[in-house]
Amino acid sequence: MEKLIEKYYRPRLPHIWCPGCGNGIVTSSIIKAIDKLGLDQDKTVIVSGIGCSSRASGYLNFDTVHSLHGRALPVATGIKLADPELNVIVITGDGDGTAIGGNHFIHTARRNINLTVILFNNNIYGMTGGQYSPLTPTDSKATTAPYGTLERAFDIAELAKAAGATYVARGTAFHANMLVDVIAKGISHDGFSLIEAVTQCPIYFGRQNKKGDASAMLKTQRDNAVTVEAAKKLSPEQLEGKFKIGVLHQSEAPEYTKQYQAIIDRAQKGAK
Questions:
Q1: Which tens digits make up the pLDDT trace of 20-62?
Q2: Which GO molecular function annotations are given, in alphabetical order (predicted)?
Q3: CA gap 114, 188 in Å, rounded
Q4: Four-CA torsion 104, 108, 110, 111, nearest 10 degrees
């Protein structure tokens, strides 16, 4: 791990994350996936939005963009269109990616552009003080919902699939080795990839909802996550209150930058 730190991290300590936050585990999983694939650092760009998770890009030794709130995907789309040979990875959170960035999310998935999105899902807006997000479970408390949220949460994996994503996976901070694997597969996939990384926020979500400390929240991930393979053997009643981890969906569809280049080629031929 020391060699990975020297190679892939910028010397920016201390970091901003709270004690017990799972964002460091998820960030480490991204780095391990990149290293596993042997990606060229000079050909890999990491784009993030705004939020606790999005601060990860500042710690990583790549060409990085810490963009505007909710705008990581249009920035990443521009980078990928400008140079389709680049590996473009997007780091976002449940608020940044699905609230102010929700419209960009569904249309980037619809286009099936070859971007890999790692969405850190801690069920809360952490950096701004614990407001509820579109992924906060119903009836959960937040600073903007002191009596509990009324709204139903998105299932971001199902939303991505319905919008047209051709690779959808989920992992957790507890299941870190699996998280590395599904991120690596997403990066290797030729099309839009979403990896939902379920992680814990013991300060703003955990305290308000009496979830215990970080270790207790990690145990909750352990006890409620079911692999895709194991879920096939369980009844709907047995799956109640559980969530699936692993590769949830994979399909093939035309990739956007290749289609875009084909239009350019046709236009250039027609102009001659």
A1: 999 999 999 999 999 999 999 999 999 999 999 999 999 999 9
A2: 2-oxoglutarate synthase activity; thiamine pyrophosphate binding
A3: 10
A4: 140
CA distances from 98 to 135, 155, 169 (A): 8, 11, 16
Region 224-230 average pLDDT: 97
3-class secondary structure for 77-99? HHHHHHCCCCEEEEEEEHHHHHH
Neighbours of 77 (CB within 10 A): 21
Q: Is 193 helix (H, G, I), strand (E, B) or coil?
A: strand
Q: What is the pLDDT of residue 271?
A: 65
The pTM assigned to this predicted structure is 0.95
Rounded Cα–Cα distance for residues 117 and 134 (Å): 17
Strands 87-93 and 63-66: unpaired
Ordered by where they begin, the domains of the chain are 2-271 (3.40.50.970)
| pLDDT 10s digits, 75-123 | 999 999 999 999 999 999 999 999 999 999 999 999 999 999 999 999 9
Are the CB atoms for 219 and 206 separated by under 8 Å?
Answer: no
